Fold this sequence. Notes:
Helix content is 56%, strand content 17%. With 390 residues, the protein is of the alpha+beta class. It has 2 domains: 2-47 and 260-388, no CATH class; 98-221, no CATH class. The protein has a 5-stranded mixed beta sheet. Helix 11 runs antiparallel to helix 12 (362-388). The model has no long low-confidence stretch (mean pLDDT 78).
Amino acid sequence: MKLIWKLLRRHLSFSQLAGFFFANLLGMVIVLLSLQFYEDIVPAFTGEDSVMKNTYIIVSKHIAATDALGGRAQTFTDADIREIETQDFTQRVGKFTASQYQVYGSISMGGLGMGTDMFFESVPDDFVDTHWPATSDGEVPIILPRSYLAIYNFGFAQTKNLPKLSEGVVSMVQLDVRLRGEGGRELALKGRVVGFSTRLNTVLVPEAFMQKTNAELAPNASAEPTRLIVEVKNPADDAIATFMQDHGYELEDNSLEAGRATYFLKVVAAIVMAVGLLISALSFYILMLSIFLLVQKNAEKLQNLRLIGYSPARISLPYQLLTIGINALVLVLAFAIVFWLRSLYLERLWQVFPTLSEGAVNNTFLVGFALFVLVSYFNCLAIRRKIKFL
């Protein structure tokens, strides 16, 4: 081993290795920084929502003044739904199902009781990212809009000197829910809030529960959906806005704009990462060229070592250790540089988005280690093959 190290050091080109080191470092930093920046910035545009994906949009029909005064609901017919399903931008379409019975909910805390008329809606379970938890008989899981909690805390509670509630507190409190249907038939249930949504302006319950209670309390009632939930392929597709405008449809939130922002961020991040990977590939070529030149300079001596009994694996080991060591140093420095730069841009982001939380770093570490393993593996493989065929 010492003899091989002496041969390696004699013809070692530090300028070539330095070129590989800095090129690989630059490529690694670009890849990891672009990935981490994407993880940190996306929540600022999309908001945290554990219920809906950013590719979901909620569609309703425009309500004219004459329709509102006349009490006519703008519903979607089967033909409307089929037309939306056949559009190129559509992945799938789901219907909002509304409760056909009266809902009254109440809550009691610390001797204070509050109650109000409510309504329930459901969508197909495939459109809800949060899995409905298993509940006991007589208990219904509920997803509430975050705006409802904000209205209570900053409006109702503040003027009535009532305690403000956090999402965690609300999730621990049971609601008394009373359902009243045809013929005065009633059901008394317990409700539990299992999630909050920033994009759904409705009180959401599981679809199975909605179908069961509608059939039990309002068997003769039927209504066409007034809202649809649509999964689109590309939120940035201009055809979506054109189609909605041409048909008099409305999007109930800024999901399309958020989806477009997310899509463009993905595109930009992918382009930057591709540039980083290209630089890393070029640095890989530089290292291979340096190692091959080094092996070629020592070709005669390495052949003599093989003749006296040294195996290709033993001869190639010092070269492989050198490349793995350089790659490991690149990885450590890349992580240090990325998280130093991250601390700088997070300060600026928090000035613009004060409530922005830090993105996850797991993917950055995984991608970094994956690149290290991949590059090192191909480095070692190429060196082994080069020395084997001397």
